[in-house]
Design goal:
4 helices; alpha+beta; 32% strand; 173 residues; 7-stranded antiparallel beta sheet
Length: 173
Amino acid sequence: MSDRELTPEELQRVNEEMHAKAGVEMKQLSKEELEAEIISYLDKKQAVCLGTCGADGVPRISVTDYVNDGLTIYIYTEGGKKLDNLRENKQVALGLGNSGRTWRSVRGVNIQGMADVFTDDDPEYEVGMKLFKPVFEAIEKELGVKIDFPKGMRRIIRVTPTKMVYYHNAKGI
């Protein structure tokens, strides 16, 4: 077993060979085209895996719902260890992906970013809650009851991306 990783050049060559064998032309998108592609993917509103890590160095993954405003991600939360971690370390990682178990269906985005947590007395909290309004309305309709949370219970996490890696095999991206 080899204990070395592929170099970026070797990885690129293997990727190009796989796409060529599949008859898919690889594309180099402009920054604007890539951002539009990522936003289109984020707009599908899948579950997101939020990775946090506190001062103790122990990573934590939280699978949660999100809404996005362009490339900015908003996550609603009622608490938990992720908030403790974010008080100690604002760096986060997000992962969204899907696969139909075929090479062509693999699509996803990995995001590194900085997270800010807002409470109901912050103006940015209202921005996030406005984006989440259709989500809460759908839940209330499904349950047939009005959801009423005590003041101070809810938080909005805003993730501002610093690095993104996007892949969409069927499109050669």
